[in-house]
Amino acid sequence: MKRSIQIAGAFVGLIVGAGFASGQEILQYFTSFGYWGIAGSILATALFAFFGMTLAQLGSQLQTTSHKGVIYHIGGRYIGIVLDLLITFFLFGVAVVMFAGAGSTFEQMFGIDARIGSIVLVVLTILTLLLNLKNIMNLIAAITPYLLVVILVILGYSLFTMDVTFGEAHNLAMDQPSAATNWLLGALLYVSYNIACGAALLIVMGGAEKDQKVAGTGGILGGILLGVMILLVNITLYVKIDVIAGVDMPTLELANQIHPVVGILMAIALLGMMYNTAVGMFYSFTVRFVAADHRYFKFIIILVGLAGYVASLVGFTTLVGKVYSTVGYLGFALMIAILIAWYRGRKQPA
């Protein structure tokens, strides 16, 4: 069970990126649909648990050290090439978004130049990736409980200081900008985007575990925990929709209302999530091309990190708009391929 919990914690830590922790993703994909956002949260929980289990088990089954083997296994020779290229692009793109996001957070919260903030995260990411996979998993998993505690504090405050009725909150929520036309598509897009980005590391984590049941349990637990956190943040934003409407970082706004110290703790959580995501994405991207025990691995890590920093200078908002929108819809192809692979696996005799 300890190994399953470790996989679950790393899975959540990877998926819960800056957009989730800031509340902006949850606001656009769930809260903006009012009551129906709760249904979307529940659906997302079930899908995350299913896809988390399937990917971790496939990684364990094939004992892979890169996502490439599993992707070609589920997609075949031709579709596998397309999925492989898409995931590899997503990995680098999302890591770059995290570097740019760190720069924006340092500038907004502490008045530090965004370029310096980005460099700090790039250096931390490179140093972390020079460690082995076990240490990386431990570091990523360790930040998850911290974020959960901060979210629970903000949720408790929000519920006790709610100034609008649930009906009024629903109407206000429906006026917020949405990332989709309805709650069902919103939930599916959110899961699609995150699975596309998190599949690679989840497969690699599964590949490091010989027991398929342990790996699958880790994926399920991670999916459920992720869903619970989505639900908690969704409820938090819903009951304080009158306060956070139009705010770029809703949870940070609520944290600052409680106390400046809580605001700083939330800012640290945001940076921690960016760090988590950057580490996971860059590791998965690099091992796609060079094995972790290869003599040139460390050199490639540094080279890729510097390239990521240069790309991050485009800007956080621009990158989010271009990368996230692309990943959401194209990720459906991966979800369908995983579903087919799971169905075929069930039909095969034990």
Structural notes for this entry:
This is Membrane protein YkvI. Keywords: Membrane, Transmembrane, Transmembrane helix. InterPro entries: YkvI-like. The chain crosses the membrane at residues 33-58, 78-102, 114-132, 139-160, 180-208, 220-241, 261-284, 296-317, 323-343. It comes from Chryseomicrobium palamuruense. 83% of the residues lie in helices and 0% in strands. By secondary structure, it is an all-alpha fold. It has helices at 2-15, 18-22, 24-29, 36-62, 67-110, 114-129, 133-160, 166-174, 183-207, 212-239, 241-244, 250-258, 260-287, 297-312, 316-347. Helix 5 packs across helix 9, helix 5 crosses helix 14 (297-312) and helix 12 (250-258) runs antiparallel to helix 13 (260-287). The chain is globular. The chain is built from 15 helices and no strands. The mean pLDDT is 81. The relative contact order is 0.23. The longest helix is centred in the first third of the chain and has 44 residues, at 67-110. It has a single domain, classed as Hydantoin permease.
